């Protein structure tokens, strides 16, 4: 009995050590550990009403109540500040700054409310991403975790220090800081999720390339058409097709959940960059002139503008990288079609091709040329697809 209790306590200690190791900074080994800093910051802001558990995602009632209170208080505070915007920031009838701040509070309030309302769909997205990313090897998280954890922490503390040092501490500035941090963390959540999906697409590409490599090996050619070999290849293709469908559904879910916040963020960044650069760099006295001296005198504004420019560039970069991995699948499927004459295998490959095709049609309205190429391929293959 005593030895049994000792073994149980030993197992618990080992399990706790594994959990501690799982959450080390810059050493992610799975989806949860990759997202952990972002989850922690979202919880601090009241935007993460979930239990942070290595085994599951589920809504926590205490944190959900806290999120509800936080959103209600932030909305009420934003309304008061907008009504008394001139007194809150001592603007002295500066119309440009009034428009900029009102736009910021409206957009920040909108993003906060939408994020709270979509808490349920977001947890389903996290569960799906955790499931489909479980096939990724732990090594694929190591290097990206350095960049992802660093950007999450640097951005959070940069906004915290910069906002509090640039403005005098009072109620309006704290609300300004809160919305800044919420917008940043929602954007980082999106970037991290897109990166995980990119890694999943890359894994499918590698698996398809491995199938081509096996098929091209000379010692396999003479018995490739054997029934057992065909069944193995068909099983692999069906698994990859199923995995691709899950990833495509996750992309659709991600777009639905984060599109309103991203659109609002882009509008906000355009307003910030336009107002700050235009009114701090351009002078209309005796014609148009760009005053670099005036820009240097407003050096406290430029880091803010650069920060948002870098953030939008980061969003564009990760989306482009994910799109490239998704496009690469169609090229590999073309190679598979060219390397086989078996009707059954070609049938399964074309099913993958169709799922890729509808993925493109769903998210690229101008993808007309790809549609024509795909239809030509179906006619050439002359196979009944359904």
TrEMBL record:
Topology of this chain in the membrane: Multi-pass membrane protein
GO cellular component, one term: neuronal cell body
Assigned keywords, A-Z: Cell membrane, Membrane, Receptor, Transducer, Transmembrane, Transmembrane helix
Function of the protein: Gustatory receptor which mediates acceptance or avoidance behavior, depending on its substrates.
Family affiliation: Belongs to the insect chemoreceptor superfamily. Gustatory receptor (GR) family.
Primary location: membrane
Top-level taxon: Eukaryota
Localization (cell): Cell membrane
Membrane-spanning segments: 23-42, 63-83, 103-125, 176-197, 262-281, 301-319
Protein name as catalogued: Gustatory receptor
Pfam families: 7tm_7 (PF08395)
GO biological process: chemosensory behavior; male courtship behavior; sensory perception of taste; signal transduction
């Amino acid at each position: 009995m005593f030895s049994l209790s000792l073994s149980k306590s030993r197992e618990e200690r080992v399990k706790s050590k594994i959990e501690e190791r799982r959450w080390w900074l810059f050493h992610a080994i799975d989806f949860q550990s990759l997202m952990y800093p972002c989850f922690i910051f979202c919880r601090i802001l009241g935007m993460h009403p979930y239990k942070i558990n290595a085994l599951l995602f589920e809504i926590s009632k205490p944190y959900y109540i806290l999120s509800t209170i936080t959103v209600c208080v932030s909305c009420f505070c934003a309304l008061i500040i907008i009504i008394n915007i001139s007194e809150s920031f001592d603007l002295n009838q500066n119309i440009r700054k009034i428009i900029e701040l009102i736009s910021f509070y409206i957009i920040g309030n909108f993003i906060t409310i939408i994020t709270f309302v979509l808490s349920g769909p977001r947890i389903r997205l996290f569960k799906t991403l955790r499931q489909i990313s479980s096939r990724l090897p732990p090594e694929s998280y190591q290097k990206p975790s350095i960049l992802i954890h660093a950007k999450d922490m640097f951005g959070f503390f940069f906004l915290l220090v910069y906002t509090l040092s640039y403005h005098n501490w009072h109620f309006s500035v704290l609300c300004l800081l809160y919305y800044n941090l919420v917008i940043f963390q929602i954007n980082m959540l999106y970037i991290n999720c897109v990166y995980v999906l990119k890694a999943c697409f890359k894994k499918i590409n590698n698996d398809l390339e491995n199938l081509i490599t096996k098929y091209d090996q000379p010692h396999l050619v003479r018995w490739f058409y054997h029934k057992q070999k065909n069944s193995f290849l068909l099983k692999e293709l069906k698994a990859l097709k199923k995995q691709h469908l899950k990833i495509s559904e996750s992309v659709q879910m991600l777009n639905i959940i984060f599109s309103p916040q991203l659109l609002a963020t882009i509008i906000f960044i355009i307003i910030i960059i336009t107002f700050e650069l235009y009114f701090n760099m351009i002078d209309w006295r005796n014609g148009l002139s760009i005053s670099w001296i005036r820009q240097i005198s407003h050096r406290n504004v430029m880091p803010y503008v650069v920060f948002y420019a870098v953030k939008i560039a980061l969003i564009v970069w990760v989306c482009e990288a994910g799109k490239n991995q998704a496009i690469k699948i169609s090229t590999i499927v073309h190679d598979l079609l060219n390397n086989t004459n078996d009707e059954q295998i070609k049938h399964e490959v074309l099913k993958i091709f169709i799922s890729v095709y509808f993925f493109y049609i769903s998210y690229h309205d101008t993808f007309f040329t790809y549609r024509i190429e795909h239809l030509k391929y179906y006619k050439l293959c002359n196979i009944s697809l359904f």
